[in-house]
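User: Show me a protein chain along with its predicted structure.
Assistant: Here is one chain, sequence first, then structure tokens.
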Amino acid sequence: MSKTKFLSPGALPQWLSELAAKATVYAPRREGRAVVYRPHIEGEAPELALRPTESAKHVLFPRAEALFSFTKQGEAEKSGRRLEVQEPAEPGPAVIFGALSCDARGFLSFDPVYEGSGTDGEARDPYYLKRREKTALVVRACKRPLSTCFCHWVSGGPASGQGADVLATEIEGGFFLQAFTERGDALLDAPSLAEATAEQRAEADKAHCAADKAMGEIPDLGPAQESLLDLFDSAEFWRDRSAHCLSCGACTYLCPTCYCFNITDESSGLAGVRLRSWDNCMSPQFTLEASGHNPRPGKSARLRNRVGHKFSYYPKIHGGRFSCCGCGRCIKSCPSSVDIRKIVLDAIKEVGHV
């Protein structure tokens, strides 16, 4: 049986210090009106009362990261300059503290893509995989879902342990901690933590049941994959659903499962760096070709691609798993109230599967 421990509020700073002695700890922090994940500062209390505005995916998949740097050496002769390439430093161990269960499941959508699963040949991404291997997740079970939450639609739940090394459940007087992996067991092997009791485990189970009950009914999304494909050429359907979209990209930048990127070389003089940066499929530039042609010039086509990828194309490649963790950030933070749940259900209804 995996380890279980109890964390009192007074012991939280000490436990974070113990974790920080061995790894970089990322924890939710209040910055203005947003709650974001930042490296933990000694003596600073994490923001645990509010839901994070963003997920912690940037810890494993940085917004911009150097794939390598380069310098040109020697004189500009006929034979050309010699190019020297420097690889980035190896990532160190990290702990993401206070991630939500939906966010932990977001990495499960990343994994098969960057491991090369579902593709022909080897397509492994060493940059992501090195960080993934060295990063532990301490997941916080949700107590009360928001109206925008729908993790249970996509095989998740407010207290899901999928992708977690440790699940932390708030109970009377502190947190019940349960390890799900060997790495989680190691995190709980700390002097600041007390042994959990059977009563505390029962209280945590009760909290999980209450949160699950508050999530509401689960619609049948089984027909979504084929329904979205059937509506691929329905210009009217996608024009209606995208009418209010501003193409701002907030949905993609805040999404825990969006993994698209662009690569650019930034140089000055004889030195430079090759950068990988997040890209946004809701932007007109995303599919703009060098010839000037754009196969998805309109926002209706771009929205069709975003929804279709998460609920049709990705599941077809990766064993039926949706590329959506149901966190609801794309709904909550959309300035035009575009609701991906309604689009998927409308597609199923339009094709006649309900």
